[in-house]
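Worked example

This section walks through a single chain of length 324. The input is the sequence exactly as stored; nothing has been trimmed or padded.
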Amino acid sequence: MKLKRIVIFLAVGKTTTVHGCDPQPPCGIVAKDIQLTEKPGIVHVVLAQHEECSPDPNEINWNNSQELNLTKIEVGVETGIVLKEIDQPWNASSIFPNGLDTLPTVDQSRYSISFEKSSGSVVVTGETFGSRKLIYNLPGFVFPSNKKRPKNVIWFYSDKMERMFFVYKKGGNYGQFSISSCTTKIHSPVESKDLCVNTNTKLNLWSVAMSNPKLFSKTKVYDSLQLVGLPNAHSCGGYSYYKFNERTLFKSVQTLNKVFIPTTVDSRTGFAYSVEGGRDKAILVKAEKIVNKQPAIYRMKSRYRRIRVRIQRSTLKASFNGSN
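Given that input, the structure is written out below as tokens.
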């Protein structure tokens, strides 16, 4: 069995997140799915082959999205080894199902939020909290005087931490955000103005849906990973993912914050994965560590928090024609 070793890029710096839709139909070779395996650090990538992309970027066949062929490759994220179908047997088998869809989330529909215009307080009630009425004051939060409900705040509840989190535009200003983390360990209807930890943040929150309350119950809170997915406001949909602790949201998980590309999270190793690129270019498999302490049996050897494996177009083409 001939092994194909690919150059690995190890990074600890920041990467750029690009939001928005890609309206162009697929062409060339694109990644359709990424699958975890029973061996941490080894993933399988499903590839779809379409008609070749036009050399003219302005020439787009809007009616062509048909898949001509499908194949799968195995990628060793830490080793850079890529195996094609012709190289089987592989080093690992896929696990079905896998990723975030298999993890429990905190139900966000069992409580409700209201606002007191006169005091500027936020009131939390509902089945989650029994007969308790929780009242919080959010520093810098401005209730628009001409609206029935504010469109500058979003919230979620962490059952594990027993805390409500409020993300809002500070002073109502665009681009300036504050986060209040408020305890729910209150057993009487008392105003809890001193029960919140308040922080300002430089996190990029511009795409988060703060103006559509219908989306708030769809917020995904993964307590086991201390990860929250906040619904996006733009027409592409999707989620923006952030890490949180008892005090605040402290990290944007850029590997997951893309629309229309395969992503997954391995809860065993605490790594998030994405597959980008393709069409008439190379494909990039990205891994980003989002959980620090994991059981030793699942711990990956790499000391780097971000790993990137680039798979050149020649290797992608060879995976379909059965050559080495």
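What to look for: The CA atoms of residues 47 and 198 lie 45 Å apart.
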